[in-house]
Amino acid sequence: MILIVSVVMLLLEAGRSSSSSASGLENQIFQYIDLHQNEFIKILKEWVAVESDSVQPRLTQEVTRMMEIAAARLQALGATVELAQLGTSQLPDGQSLLLPPLILAELGKDPQKPTVCFYGHLDVQPAKKEDGWETDPYTLTESDGNLYGRGASDNKGPVLAWINAVETFKALKLDMPVNFKFIIEGLEEVGSPGLEKLIKDKNQLFFSDVDYIVISDNLWLSNRKPALTYGTRGSICFFVEVQGGERDLHSGTFGGIIHEPITDLIALLDSLVDISGRILIPGIYDDVSILTEEEKKLYESVEFDVEGHKNISGVKKFLYDNKEEILMNMWRYPSLSIHGIEGAFHEPGIKTVIPIRVIGKFSIRLVPHMNISIVEHQVKQYLEDIFSKRSSPNKLMVSVPLSAVPWLADINNTLYTAAKGAIKTVFGQDPDMIRDGSTIPIARMFQNITKKSVMMFPIGDADAGEHSQNEKISRSNYFQGTKLFATFFLEIAKLHEQLQEASTMKTTN
Amino acid sequence: MILIVSVVMLLLEAGRSSSSSASGLENQIFQYIDLHQNEFIKILKEWVAVESDSVQPRLTQEVTRMMEIAAARLQALGATVELAQLGTSQLPDGQSLLLPPLILAELGKDPQKPTVCFYGHLDVQPAKKEDGWETDPYTLTESDGNLYGRGASDNKGPVLAWINAVETFKALKLDMPVNFKFIIEGLEEVGSPGLEKLIKDKNQLFFSDVDYIVISDNLWLSNRKPALTYGTRGSICFFVEVQGGERDLHSGTFGGIIHEPITDLIALLDSLVDISGRILIPGIYDDVSILTEEEKKLYESVEFDVEGHKNISGVKKFLYDNKEEILMNMWRYPSLSIHGIEGAFHEPGIKTVIPIRVIGKFSIRLVPHMNISIVEHQVKQYLEDIFSKRSSPNKLMVSVPLSAVPWLADINNTLYTAAKGAIKTVFGQDPDMIRDGSTIPIARMFQNITKKSVMMFPIGDADAGEHSQNEKISRSNYFQGTKLFATFFLEIAKLHEQLQEASTMKTTN
């Protein structure tokens, strides 16, 4: 087994080094992409022009229209397309609304080739010129090398870059290096209702012959250096309820004679983290994976602008000064944040109330290999211990309304090796290997349900302004991204073939 | 001086004991009141029928009509009545609304007699049958010895009891024992806008010849035992703002690398009171008046149902077990209550936000002889010390949006002695000498501006249901209250005369 792995690694390395400069085939592809920039921009412009805002129910029709346009485009490439219905949702006014369909598409079924499934979404966040856009958000506008428009980066641009890459092979009448599958949704911006169920339902059919899953719905860490994302933190949210009676009391009439529930709650919340941000719950760090030398090196090579990140946050000083510590505490160590209190006075001004039932809310970001049940037990035990020491007559109730496990991929597997090779070819450098400190459920959801290799494969623009005004994709990233995906197809096909050969070697030996 | 005071005390004691059973004059008055119960109820019914709800601007006309009805009643008694205009207020829709006028009335100007000014209000809290009233709130309805209706206790009943008492003297063609002044407003339930300014404006004219001010707008502590209120706590409210940047951050992206402002705030709030409710701010108790043996005895004799009070609060266990400690901590010791946090997440559900600017809100109830400026300085100093030890890069700002000094009357002065005497005559027992833990500005406002003796003189019904459904005054308290006020007029006249004689003795000696 060890021998086989070494052989595979060797083959992978060989495959990778061979693509460190573009081949003739690659150059042919790049040339085609460069020559057809105007067409690719025209399509992006057409797609951005559709106000496929999934947040506002009145625009659902536009999301559906967007899905139909994309379906037609995939069909034109020769793909088999299914528009999967997700049912209806209930509006606040009681009316039910037909949800926009989700695209499931397939192109190619050659058992000799790997099958790569691409996930993307074509719905967008709301945008209005009056929000502070310098140009009309639904009219793609080029300025200073950037293409401005809602959805340019999130996520119409990357979806089109992938489709354009596929189209390039077709236009050049090249053999498709891989079989393609597409899962493209129209409800990402509202939390992807129905997606998890659909993946589960389709796991035995649609996903059974998928080898790799690629998501391109995030960003590089810097504007200059390509990145691959291999992990996201999980989270566990806690409600800490302290109740003292049935109704709020007047602090004049009862202040000084009762155990105020909020005093208990504040003491509990104050026991969670110390001044340095360290979580005080006993045992909480026990299962955090140990930092290996290999992982440590990843942080050293990441291009990360600490001052720039401070500027984005608006915060003057971080808890750590050096880049590595900051990255590790964002990505690979747990953190605890207190979000607020429900049931207390929260408005401007003053109300001299003794709130009688208060719910403190905090969450812990989870990292490998923390276990949700263990953390839940540790936190509950700790809070109950502290509370019991107060001898308060109030009632404590700790609950977990929401939790999600972290996601971590093996960055030495074929998928990541292929992407690194493609990046080296197109950008002439190695990517930043990054994680995301927040809890993005999509990668984890695909990995947990399908058990396939999953990679988040962004194509650029750390300053894309997703969800914000003046969202954009740079012209360069749109086309370099298209080249990157095309190169990746070749790379993964080659590595996959080598892998299969190695596997055959093992069988025949 | 000491001699004179002793003489006065002796005279006051003599005056008091002489009224421990009703005189012939008093019996004549009581008989009249008993015989005219139906008329007095009829008037209360008419007054309750006016929906003089000052909370809803659309009913302002009804408040004005109520003021005019009361003005006419006082004029019928021979009083000179001024309807003082309070100007206009701005409605949320931008329209301006003419505020209901305030009654300033005078009856009698005999320089030999003391002048007693009565304060009351004729506006009421909103009430609708659908709120859970068993009877129509604006139709005074008698049941089981109680008169149910909005304003029956708060405050139309007590205002009428006073006016009925005056009317009784007039009807019986008795010499008025005192000169009367009335200040009756229609905006008490909305915070008495304009009242403080009016008292200041009228201080040199209307109030210059007033000797005593009586307010009858609160309740006894029990349903059985009469009470006199001689103090209220003050309060000082604090805003503790901790700011870390310009905008809220995502706890996934920034959790673990920044000093979260709410963590600082929670630590500050947690440093304010200990488990037993004791305020931890150094020096805060230094100026709290020392408990004298005389004051201690007052608490022992107060009739206070600890279990009943627990039931009202809905709280299972108080910080103290015995009556005296509970009362002292409600009335004569400071307390600190945390009200809530502005700027943090406060809704149901979960939002994994790092709030970047949070404002903790708490208040301290002040008691004699705490000084607002000193307390403000102590609290600010303490919070700044604790904050500086955290070495947080966040910004702390502590401010005081609101403060009010406590009110305490001298219970040995003529006003209280007269009221105690009247209570002994009418109810055959000594009153509970009580305070209020909350900050009722009215008594303090009168005392501070006019420098006159002020007394809060309730006529009953601990279970009156003020501001609640099924508000009522018991039939018995309405008429006993009328008798009490009439007796009080005689009592204060007598004591005032004795005081003046003592004063003359001093001058002639």
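The first helix of chain B runs from residue 2 to 18.
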